[in-house]
Amino acid sequence: MIWYKCVQFYFHLPIIVRLLLSVSILMTMFGSLIHLIEPDHFPSVFDGIWWAIVTGSTVGYGDYVPLSTIGKIIAILLILAGGGFVTFYMATLSAGTIKFEQDLSEGKTSYRGTNHTIIIGWNERTKQLIEMIEAHNLDTEVVLIDHTLNKLSFKDHHIHYIKGEPTSDKTLQKANIEQAKFIIITSDPSLTEEQADRQTILSIIAARGNNASIHIISEILTEMQRKNAIRAGADVTVRSNNFMSSLFYQSLFQTDPQVTEIIAKTLEEQQFCSELVDEGLIDKDFYFCAQQFLADRKWLIGLFRENEMILHPDFALRMKKGDSLIYLQSLEHTRKQVE
């Protein structure tokens, strides 16, 4: 019964572990045997095991050599048996490494890390986002979920790829969504705007169902689906069409072609933030508040008052209780505050 359990346990081990265990047992057995037969030439069991490994791997240093006939017969058996085992082990190890790399690039390997960021959809927006994350050395691993890619080389893109539908629990679990910190859901460019938004909302529901605390950022194309995305569980909805329309509108009144680059660079390197007005700033004018914020490397640009956004208000405008101040600060400064 015990023997059967041992055999059952052995064959449940991964093949690499089984081969390593078999080679170790075989070399230990031959090393102990040669030590018992020729104790003068092999003073210790370790010397015997060393000889067995060198001989079985066909390296043959020659520092230990059996002299007796029985010892030479054991060496022949070791070369025949051990050489085959070691060669098979190395071939299996190499094949396993190649298969793991193939599975990784084809999106078949589950992710085991924690506090990572999941990005859904492979498109130009996600490519640039990943480049920004790498350029700013953000302390987060990126896991990409996409159903259109056949292969994504890990050497060229230092992200973990999972192939599958983002609405599938199995796919999300392979991405280890239970331990993820953020998930960014981008719109599918191959669908119409209405279809893309419906797909995004389904992905939000699936993500929220698998992790109640994950921070969900979703791209929504149509205004009528924005509220549905929030109802589904999105923490932040990004209206990409609104942003592009505003950018086009800005370009109408600018002759300098670098204006769009300035806006893009600002969004890349600066963080838009808001915070409730401090008790000490109530009844103070906007100019005074701006000076206080500048001392902390924050550029005050406006405020929220009674659900209304006021940008670049009059310097004489006084703060009221319940106001939220809007400001810009560098991403690096924001990261240091979070850390």
Automatic annotation (TrEMBL):
InterPro entries, sorted: K_chnl_dom (IPR013099), NAD(P)-bd_dom_sf (IPR036291), RCK_N (IPR003148), Trk_Ktr_HKT_K-transport (IPR050721)
UniProt topology in membrane: Multi-pass membrane protein
Keywords from the UniProt entry: Ion channel, Ion transport, Membrane, Transmembrane, Transmembrane helix, Transport
Superkingdom of this protein's organism: Bacteria
Cell location: Cell membrane
Organism: Gracilibacillus salitolerans
GO cellular component: plasma membrane
PROSITE patterns: RCK_N
Name of this chain's protein: Potassium channel protein
Keyword Electron transport among UniProt keywords: no
Record-level GO BP terms: monoatomic ion transmembrane transport; potassium ion transport
Stretches that traverse the bilayer: 15-37, 49-66, 73-91
Domain RCK N-terminal, chain residue ranges per copy: 114-238
